[in-house]
């Protein structure tokens, strides 16, 4: 969303204008707080400007001091803007900012809508209801480029070499410095040849060389366990994010699908590089 910069216009200080001591209860975002040569500055613009404040010292100013500072900035900005030229660049920037603000507001309304228990339950059932228990593996591996190298390392392991030390010395994978440790994973998290090899191993065993798209692996199975589907409350936030994301994507697709879209043919894409066009009034 477009947010005006507090320091966008650096001019000599103008007299500070104070806010009224008390505001009527019916004030809204369109309430005019000042005019500059007929151009309105509104309460909504002031609120948006306050949201853009990044400096904690400024943000923590008393309301009156911050009000005076921001209103002074907007007055100076408005006065200077009146002397500016409305070029194609300015019109394009303003229109893009307007559309972005409207699109952001529309998406935010969808994403922040309250979710029902029924929606959460349906999402949970979709992800976990039929999952049951999942077998997980804890393993380490040594990854090398050739089968010959893998066989040589396997022979050393069979002769009593320590797996972690061999992984640190020979493995080309990112887990090598950590003794080849892969932690816990489910079979579907690994490529098929690797997961198939692990599934057929006994705890503590080291596999023969296994080929995947990444190279040749020697795998040591440390342990296995059964993981139950998580409880609803444990994944509630994950489900909420998924539902909101799907709602936003579905609404965007619906709106684009219903829009009357006509693309102009024959415009040279190379014109994207012609910034001179933006100087036209």
Protein described:
- It is built from 9 helices and 6 strands, in the order ββαααααβααβαββα.
- Among the domains are: 1-84, no CATH class; 133-227, Chitinase A, domain 3.
- Strand 1 (32-36) and strand 2 (39-42) form a beta hairpin.
- The protein is elongated, with a radius of gyration of 31 Å.
- It has helices at residues 43-51, 56-59, 63-81, 88-111, 117-129, 147-158, 163-170, 192-199, 236-258, and strands at 32-36, 39-42, 134-144, 181-186, 210-212, 215-227.
- The protein is α+β, with helices and mostly antiparallel strands.
Produce the secondary structure layout.
Layout: E1 32-36, E2 39-42, H1 43-51, H2 56-59, H3 63-81, H4 88-111, H5 117-129, E3 134-144, H6 147-158, H7 163-170, E4 181-186, H8 192-199, E5 210-212, E6 215-227, H9 236-258
Antiparallel strand pairs: 1-2, 3-4, 3-6, 5-6
Helix pairs in contact: 5-9
Q: How many helix segments?
A: 9
Give the proportion of residues in helices: 40-55%
Strand order within the widest beta sheet: 4-3-6-5
- Mind telling me the C-alpha Rg? 31 Å
**Major beta-sheet overview:** 4 strands, antiparallel
Low-confidence stretches: 1-22
H-E string:
EEHHHHHEHHEHEEH
Please tally the β strands and state the result. 6
């Amino acid at each position: 969303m477009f947010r005006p910069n507090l320091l966008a216009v650096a001019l000599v200080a103008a007299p500070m204008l104070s806010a009224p001591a008390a505001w009527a209860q019916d004030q809204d975002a369109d309430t005019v707080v000042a005019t500059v040569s007929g151009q309105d500055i509104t309460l909504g613009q002031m609120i948006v400007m306050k949201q853009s404040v990044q400096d904690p010292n400024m943000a923590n100013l008393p309301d009156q001091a911050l009000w005076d500072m921001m209103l002074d900035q907007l007055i100076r900005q408005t006065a200077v803007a009146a002397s500016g030229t409305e070029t194609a660049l300015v019109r394009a920037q303003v229109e893009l900012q307007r559309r972005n603000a409207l699109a952001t507001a529309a998406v935010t309304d969808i994403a922040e809508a309250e979710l029902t228990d029924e929606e959460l339950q349906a999402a949970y059932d979709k992800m976990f209801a039929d999952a049951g228990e999942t077998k997980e593996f804890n393993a380490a591996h040594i990854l090398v480029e050739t089968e010959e190298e893998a066989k040589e390392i396997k022979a050393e392991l069979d002769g009593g070499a320590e797996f972690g030390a061999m992984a640190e010395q020979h493995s080309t994978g990112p887990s090598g410095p950590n003794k080849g440790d892969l932690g816990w994973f489910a079979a579907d998290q690994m490529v098929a040849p690797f997961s198939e090899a692990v599934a057929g191993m006994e705890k503590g065993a080291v596999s023969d060389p296994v080929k995947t798209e990444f190279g040749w692996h020697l795998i040591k199975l440390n342990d296995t366990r059964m993981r139950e589907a998580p409880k609803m409350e444990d994944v509630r936030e994950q489900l909420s994010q998924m539902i909101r994301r799907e709602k936003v994507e579905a609404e965007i697709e619906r709106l684009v699908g219903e829009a009357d879209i006509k693309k102009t043919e024959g415009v040279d894409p190379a014109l994207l590089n012609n910034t001179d066009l933006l100087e036209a009034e």
